[in-house]
Write a structure and sequence with these properties.
It is a single chain. The chain has one domain. With 59 residues, it is of the alpha+beta class. The protein has one helix and three strands, in the order βββα. The protein has a three-stranded antiparallel β-sheet, with no helix packed on it. Strand 1 and strand 2 form a beta hairpin. This is Translational regulator CsrA. It is found in: Cytoplasm.
């Protein structure tokens, strides 16, 4: 895992086609803008955790 410090307005580029940009930062909260091709699926981590918990309960 790569851990970076970024300030508002700064960004990282992943594989030359996914840009993750910090658009706001205050008091420990960040707002990120993610620009990626439409075929790339972007899912928030808490949604993945919810799905995993539901799957585990079903077993």
């Amino acid at each position: 895992m790569l851990v970076l410090g970024r300030r508002p307005g700064e960004y990282v580029l992943i594989d030359n086609n996914i840009m993750v940009k910090v658009v706001k930062s205050d008091e420990g909260h960040l707002r990120l803008a993610i620009d990626a091709p439409k075929h790339i699926t972007i899912v928030r981590g808490e949604l993945l955790e919810d799905r995993k918990m539901e799957f585990d309960k079903a077993e």
